[in-house]
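Practice problem: predict the structure.
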Amino acid sequence: MTEVSSKKPKQSPSLKARALRLLSLREYSRKSLAAKLAESEARWAKLTEFELNPQASASNIDAVLDDFEARGWLSDERFAEALVRRRSERYGTRKIQEDLQRAGVDAQQSAQLLADLRETEFERAYGLWSKKYGVKAQDQKERARQYRFLASKGFGLDVVARIIGGQTPD
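Answer:
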């Protein structure tokens, strides 16, 4: 006597469960969480060979995100604060502003956070420069290298020029 095992196809976790799992790991902006969930839906559809309806999937994702925002679980403002806090040690205002725009955070929401960053930009850039180099460049090649380093981190060119020129925080 042989038993036929009837394996059910693996069911994907609900959209809400996936969104909640992602949010439990870190903060997301609405735009980035929607992109992650859409990617997850497409991956599950491909694994289960289930035909995906993009409009229905997008409306389901929007409904979940609206629910999460209403409950206070998803907040672009909280995401922006976390991103600024996480990146402010190593990056300048320009780079952080680009990251916020890429994540879909409204410019008005991030304006105050960026204003606060601009106030401390020289000190943050000087701290990063002193950790990496610590001494004023002696030749043009080294000055250019230090300049490129700070500029690539998103610090303003006026701040970079002051640091490379030898100015220190008061």
